[in-house]
Amino acid sequence: MKARRRVLLVLRHAVLVAVCAAMLVPFYWVVKTSLTGENIYAYPPHLVPVGGNLFHYVDVWYFIPFPRYLLNSIAVSLLAVAGNLVLNAMAGYALTRNFAGRQAVILLLLSCMLIPFQATIIPAYLITARMGLLNSYLGLALPLLSTIVCIFVFKSSFEAVPRSLVDAARMDGLGDARILLRIMLPLSKAAVATNIILSFIWSWNAFLWPLIVTRTPEMQTLPLGLARFLSYMEDTTGALYAFVVMVLAPGLFVFFMAQKEFIRGLTSGAAKG
Amino acid sequence: MKFVPLLRSRFVVVLLVLGLLVAGWNVYVARHDHGLIGGTVVDAAGHPVSGATVVLYEQQFTNQVERARTTTDAEGRFRFSGNRSHRVELQASGPGGAMSARRIVKLWFRAQDWVLKEPLVVGGA
Fold it and tell me: Which residues 96-115 of B are in CB contact (within 8 Å) with A?
């Protein structure tokens, strides 16, 4: 019986390892090609890097204005993260309060999630243009300053805070803003981390919106730079893959730094009780 | 004492270490970015070639552009200064017109000081 259980355990782990490997192989291939520059059509392909070096990364850094793209992406992502934290926390807190039409607001927000961004991109562009924010960092971050998914992450996290705590704070004379700042947010670190990660990754990877909002190459972000790089460079497989790694790295870094809080934030409120 | 919990936070420690690495790298770059590239030119028998012309090509986006040329001294040594690129090519031609193969020099940063480990060979096979 014990031996059978052990065999099942080994089998289960073997399957898990195989699934993990299948998911990680594309990442491994990108990193390996960025080091070796091996042509993707080379046959037979080398499974392990042969003669790898980091010079493709140096090429990317200097052949295109990579530091400028990086700075733009960081600026836009920071704005998006800050906007998400402030606006989503306020919206999430409001949705935990009782007010007339609360259910209607929740329904409206949920139904808005069904509309793809591409369908609202023209009005979003016109509003941004009217505000004079085209080709600016704020204009690039504008549609990502608040996201409905993240509002609900905050809402479910705030609902998990004991009601008695909020009532006690109110008895002590704290207003809603200070309750949010002093009680709700410190008790919702997982939701804060989830908001940071999701808004960072979404703004970091955004392509379509920056493509139509930017007017000059100096305002382009990394995904646009990648497309530009593809159109400029020929036969530079290594540099292209190095660029991909350099675009991915900051997002992965943020995720790995806060993955514990991120997973807790996504699962909090998922189960009742 | 107030800062001890901060130093235990992975967010602070990792960012601090990254910051130190970047600062260290920048200090190293600042001390080694004079744009000096040197080396020697020898003939097929391995003897230094004096008076050989060495041309430095700079890699542009898709092509090579000649940036500088110099001649070797009595011991076959040459030296370029003021290189601003991170990827250059060197080619030598002896007094008799024999050429060397083009040598690609990949640098870790722009204007890195570099001395060729292997000499340029003119008139080789």
Answer: 106-110
| Cβ–Cβ below 8 Å for A58 and B87 | yes
A169-216 pLDDT, tens digit each: 999 999 999 999 999 998 998 899 889 989 998 999 999 999 999 999
pTM beyond 0.95, yes or no: no
Contact A224, A135 (CB under 8 A): no
Q: What is the DSSP letter of A175?
A: -
Q: How far is B32 from chain A (nearest CA, A)?
A: 16
In whole angstroms, what is the distance from residue B119 CA to residue B45 CA? 12
Distances in Å between the alpha carbon of B48 and those of A101, A207, B95, B96? 89, 56, 12, 14
Question: How far does the CA of residue A207 sit from the closest CA of chain B (Å)?
Answer: 24
C-alpha closest to that of A248 among A200, A193, A218, A205:
A205
Instruction: Name the residue among A59, A233, A257 with its Cβ closest to that of B14.
Output: A257
Phi, psi for B82 (deg, rounded to 5): 85, 15
Q: What is the distance between the terminal CA atoms of chain A, rounded to a whole angstrom?
A: 36
The verdict on a CB contact (< 8 Å) between B110 and A62 is yes
The conformational region for residue A269 under phi > 0 = left, psi -120 to 50 = alpha, else beta, is: left
User: Do the bridges between strand B103-106 and strand B64-71 make them parallel or antiparallel, or are there none, so unpaired?
Assistant: unpaired
Task: Label residue B2 by pLDDT band (50, 70, 90).
Answer: low
Res A233: pLDDT:
63
Residues of A in contact with B110 (CB under 8 A): 62
In this predicted structure, what is the pLDDT of residue B77?
A: 95
Cα separation, A138 vs A128, whole angstroms: 9
Residue of A nearest to B111 (CA): A62
**Ramachandran area for residue A272 (φ above 0: left; ψ -120 to 50: alpha; else beta):** beta
Backbone angles phi, psi at B99, to 5 degrees: -105, 155
Neighbours of A80 (CB within 10 A): 28
pLDDT score for A266: 66
Q: What residues of B are in contact with residue A233 (Cβ under 8 Å)?
A: 61-62
A83-95 pLDDT per residue, tens: 999 999 999 999 9
* Chain B contact set for A59 (CB, 8 A): 86-87
Which of B14, B58, B62, B83 would you mutate first to test chain A, the one with the most A CBs within 10 A?
A: B62
